[in-house]
From TrEMBL:
The lineage of its organism: Bacteria, Pseudomonadati, Pseudomonadota, Alphaproteobacteria, Hyphomicrobiales. Residues 8-339 form the FAD-binding domain. Keywords: FAD, Flavoprotein, Monooxygenase, Oxidoreductase, Ubiquinone. Gene3D superfamilies: FAD/NAD(P)-binding domain. It comes from the Bacteria. This is Ubiquinone biosynthesis hydroxylase, UbiH/UbiF/VisC/COQ6 family. Its cofactor is FAD. Pathway: Cofactor biosynthesis; ubiquinone biosynthesis. PANTHER family: MONOOXYGENASE NMA2164, UBIQUINONE BIOSYNTHESIS MONOOXYGENASE COQ6, MITOCHONDRIAL. Belongs to the UbiH/COQ6 family. It comes from Neomesorhizobium albiziae.
Length: 404
């Protein structure tokens, strides 16, 4: 490490919501933190609407409130989620998830991804010990038990005691650290847009597993929902490029008029569906957070919540190490972080993959199995109440296709 290197205690690669929240979680420390992001500063300071609405659990809201981000998000961008319905094909039967009887508290709150990013960016930018290095990509990263060295596209070298990768589920930093991952490219894409519709949604989300498609309607303001349509990638691309009138007509037909006639209320966006599970969540002087560690299928609506709770755990362990004057990259500490994240994320990750396989299958036996399964679950209160509790997730476990 030569004298011209820029020295930091921690370098975070990726200024998505999880990377920014991790930097914000270290605000009360004296640690010198750098956040490296390839997007220019102007785009981070004024993030564009990207179609994604994040279903925040109560635990996530509590974390954002502690960071000062929750109150920075306008109330008009917060849409309560009062319940959810799961439908299968043309069957009128719906599996229902609601708040406990007598509770006025919603299952969660929907907030645009761009508003979360904007609030966290403003917090990190005001921190005395955090530095945003925007407009630069990482061209190399090496790590050892002595620390990490990161080379940027402009030739600068950063040295750090701890490198934290938060650069998406297809993390280049994870690859440079020599950490493998189970990457499942599903061959489908999710098309997302806001739509206006004739019928009221009553703040109830609907997930509809139909033949060769999955539709989710997330309730926003009155008469407006976020529509998520999962299709084979070539079909999603066709819909993305179709003209507005044809697109709106096809959407109304695909939804079988459940909410009446639909009209576009935003631009359209598509995201390829990829799930990832890193083989390890740490390496010498390095750790993975967010989608770089675990990239959930968005049908769970829990990817960002898991990432947010994971970064809090890592930051908490680092702050305790600082308080006790111990190494912030102590292998035993990083191992405990990994163990916590595995225990928290694995049940939901693998159960979701199993359910997605069941609910996306087109074989007649598979369609019959999910129909029977939905009806069976309806008569098992502990199943419905357990999933509702997971959605409220008071102890901290999140919808996004990615945490970027």
């Amino acid at each position: 490490m030569v004298g011209s290197d820029e020295r930091f205690d921690i370098v975070v690669i990726g200024a998505g919501p999880v990377g920014l929240s991790f930097a914000a979680s270290l605000a009360q420390s004296e640690l010198k933190v750098a956040v490296v992001e390839q997007q220019p500063l102007e785009r981070l300071a004024d993030p564009a609407f990207d179609g994604r609405e994040i279903a925040l659990t109560h635990a996530s809201i509590r974390i954002l409130r502690e960071l000062g981000a929750w109150d920075a998000i306008p109330a008009s961008d917060k849409s309560p989620l009062q319940g959810a319905r799961v439908l299968n094909g043309s069957s009128p039967f719906a599996l229902c998830f609601d708040s406990p009887s007598g509770s006025r508290e919603p299952l969660g709150v929907l907030v645009p991804n761009c508003r979360i990013r904007d609030a966290l960016f403003k917090i990190v930018r005001l921190q005395d010990h955090a530095q945003l290095l925007c407009g630069h990509s990482v061209v190399n990263a090496t790590n050892s038990h002595k620390g990490a060295v990161i080379t940027l596209s402009d030739g600068r070298r950063l040295t750090a005691r701890l490198l934290v990768a938060a650069d998406s589920r297809l993390s280049a930093t994870r690859d440079r650290l020599g950490i493998g991952a189970a990457i499942n490219r599903l061959g489908n894409s999710m098309l997302i847009c806001r739509v206006r519709h004739e019928r009221a949604h009553h703040q109830i989300a609907v997930e509809w597993f139909d033949h060769h498609q999955t539709i989710a309607m997330l309730p926003l303001m009155e008469g407006v929902s976020s529509l998520l349509l999962t299709l084979r990638s070539n079909e999603a691309d066709r819909l993305l490029s179709s003209d507005d009138d044809l697109f709106q007509m096809e959407l109304t037909n695909r939804c079988r008029g459940r909410l009446g006639e639909m009209t576009l209320a935003s631009n359209r966006h598509t995201y390829p569906l990829v799930t990832t599970w890193a083989h390890k969540f740490w390496a010498p002087s390095a750790a993975l957070v967010g989608d770089a560690a675990v990239g959930m299928h968005p049908v769970t609506a829990h990817g960002f919540n898991i990432g947010l709770s994971g970064q809090k755990q890592l930051a908490h362990k680092i702050l305790i190490a600082c308080r006790d004057r111990r190494d912030i990259a102590d292998p035993d500490m990083l191992q405990r972080y990994e163990s916590w994240l595995r225990l928290s994320a694995a049940p939901l990750y693998y159960a979701t993959n199993l359910l997605v396989g069941l609910y996306s299958g087109e074989h007649p036996a598979t369609r019959l199995a999910r129909h029977v399964g939905l009806r069976f679950a309806q008569y098992l209160p502990f199943v419905r109440h357990g999933i509702s509790a997971m959605l409220r997730a008071r102890r901290g476990t999140n919808a996004s296709c990615d945490d970027r």
